[in-house]
């Protein structure tokens, strides 16, 4: 497998292809797993997207979500983990000034 890491938008566009190819969500999921292995979307997520496509919604962008936006960048978290991969979520949250739940997401 190449170094390409698919993002959510790419995966959703591939799902549109499978949807128009008359595949089921389960078949699409199996095909994604063959190609992307652990990076593949779950079967439940595939079913959710197929439901949206069936309703005529082909917008693959993320919908706005409620809740507080993230207050740190993933690069900051990755840098801390590179320094010491054994840090707990509580320690990371304290350094970044966020809650433990923000780290776990």
UniProtKB/TrEMBL annotation:
Biological process terms in GO annotation: DNA double-strand break processing; DNA integration; double-strand break repair via nonhomologous end joining; mitotic DNA integrity checkpoint signaling; replication fork processing
Pfam families, per the entry: HTH_48
Matches recorded under InterPro entries: Mos1_HTH, Transposase-MT_Hybrid, WH-like_DNA-bd_sf
GO CC list: condensed chromosome; nucleus; site of double-strand break
Domain Mos1 transposase HTH: 9-57
GO MF assignments: DNA topoisomerase binding; double-stranded DNA binding; histone H3K36 methyltransferase activity; histone H3K4 methyltransferase activity; single-stranded DNA binding; single-stranded DNA endodeoxyribonuclease activity
Gene3D superfamilies: 1.10.10.1450, Winged helix-like DNA-binding domain superfamily/Winged helix DNA-binding domain (1.10.10.10)
Protein name: Mariner Mos1 transposase
């Amino acid at each position: 497998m190449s170094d390409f890491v698919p993002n959510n938008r790419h995966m959703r566009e591939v799902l549109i292809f499978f949807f128009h190819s008359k595949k089921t969500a389960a078949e699409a999921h199996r095909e994604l797993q063959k190609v992307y292995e652990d990076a593949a979307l779950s079967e439940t997520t595939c079913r959710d997207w197929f439901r949206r496509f069936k309703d005529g919604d082909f917008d693959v962008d993320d919908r706005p979500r409620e809740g507080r936006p993230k207050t740190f960048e993933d690069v900051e978290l990755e840098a801390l983990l590179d320094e010491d991969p054994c840090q707990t979520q509580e320690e990371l949250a304290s350094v970044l000034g966020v809650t433990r739940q923000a780290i776990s997401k």
